[in-house]
Amino acid sequence: PLPPGWGCFYAAGPGPCRPGPCPLTPRAGGAPRFRVSGLPWKDRGMTRPEPKDPTWGILRSWGVVLLVGIAISGIWWVPPLVQSWRTPPISDGFGIGDAVVALRLDAGGTSYLVLVDAEGRTRSAQLAERGSGESRVVWTEAGLSTGDPGHEYLLRSDGLTRLALPGPGEFSGERQRLPVDGGFAVWSGSAEGQQLAFVDARAGRVTAVGAGSSSPALASCGGELVEAGEYGVRAVTRASRELDGFGILDDVLGLACDAEHVYGLGEISRDANSSQTVRVWDRATGERREIRVRYPEHVLDSSVGTPFVRDGRLYWAADWRLWSIRLPSGEAAAPAPVAEATVAADLGGFIGDYDPVVGGDDLVLARAGGRVYGVASKEEFVNPRRGEVHDRLDGLAIFGADVRTGERRIVLEIHDIDFPRRDLSVTSIAVDPKWADSAAAR
To answer: How far apart are alpha carbons 151 and 144 in whole angstroms?
Structure first.
């Protein structure tokens, strides 16, 4: 008998309690087909619950593992995908637009071509380097010139022209990139040897001049490409078949020129009283003489970069400074005069909150008018307890240094950065000549 107030559930439905046992209608096999709430399943007259299929438990466990794996992989893969969407590989529609500065740089392990407008906004595209930190960029009225291991790129206001480099395979290094009449000359190297490529900006084609294993120094003199050697000064054209000018093996690290002479800068000595030799070629007669340059102190760098001539003075960069000498003139100049090097501008040291990233090479300095332009950054070394160690970029700016007065100042702060803000390495800079003239005038 059930306690008072309990109801009995017959097979046909509920009914009142009666004295005596509750007349239950069993199933086949004697198991009742109803349950009474509040009692254990045995006392409720229930059948034992069917055991669950273990397959579903296994599938559910693997599903959880899969979801966790997707979440973890998203941490690693989503940021690169987002960055690739923001800065895709270079395409035919990537033109100069309203940019005034161009940079080749590496950030977060990826190489970029970065264009900066006058408001400090960046527009970047992924572009592989030709060599490790050797890709140059040059800006003239013909356009913006740069390259990757297998191509030359000529950027104009509304797009670019992609030109395949002649020759087998890819080029693993870039030696020089110079402006010439109608385009650019690019000196590259590979396992097969050296190659000089002329980029015709008007026709949109590349003509290559093989150079074997030679590595002469070259200079652009009024739009004419020249080399200098034992024979004097010689023009290098698309029709040239042999390049044998002086180079690094002849103690000529760089060439500069004016209307009458070509100047070859030698290596800076490493002794306590640093010095170097500058060879001077007469462009008309081929006559050569030498100038011995003495420094006022020991100079750490032995190489020189960014040589150029302006207002009767020869300039070059070394040891985080821009150096200068007054060039001798006239037939009365001594055969081996001595020139005292002076500092024209300090390229190192903070400019406000920004620290210049320039060095003594010719990659991260651009000359336009009476100024040289470089890049300065604000970075912080990040060494968290958990995570990867890296340098975080907090700010970037373009600075200019007046070659006559030595004055340095920030001419453009970059506020909107679309490339990764970590592990920055700037390899080259170019400025719009027209913008540089207006910036120098401000």
So the answer is: 14
CA of 28: how far to CAs of 31, 44, 47, in Å? 7, 17, 12
Residue with the two structure tokens 């000196």: 187
For residue 304, the Cα-to-chain-centroid distance in whole angstroms is 22
Q: Left (φ > 0), alpha (ψ -120 to 50) or beta: where does 197 sit?
A: beta
128 pLDDT more than 80: yes
Cα distances (Å, whole numbers) of residue 215 to 164, 177, 193, 211, 278: 22, 14, 10, 8, 19
Radius of gyration of the chain (CA): 37
| Per-residue confidence (pLDDT) for residue 359, from 0 to 100 | 55
Q: Which residues contact 439 (CB under 8 A, 6 or more apart)?
A: 371, 400, 411, 412
Identify whether the C-beta of residue 352 lies closer than 8 Å to the C-beta of residue 293: no
Contact assessment for residue 153 and residue 147, using Cβ atoms and an 8 Å cutoff: yes
pTM as predicted = 0.79
pLDDT tens for residues 21-37?
A: 555 444 444 444 444 44
* 3-state DSSP helix/strand/coil % of the chain, to nearest 5: 10, 45, 45
Give the number of other CB atoms < 10 A from CB of residue 351. 17
Task: Give the model's pLDDT for residue 132.
Answer: 75
Query: Side-chain half-sphere of 36: how many Cα atoms within 13 Å?
Result: 18
Instruction: Say yes or no to pLDDT of 38 above 70.
Output: no
Whether residue 107 contacts residue 424, with contact meaning beta carbons closer than 8 Å, is answered with yes
Cα–Cα distances in Å, from 428 out to 108, 110, 240, 406? 17, 15, 28, 22
Task: Over range 46-55, report the average pLDDT.
Answer: 58
Distance, in Å, from the CA atom of 184 to the CA atom of 152, rounded to the nearest integer, reads: 10
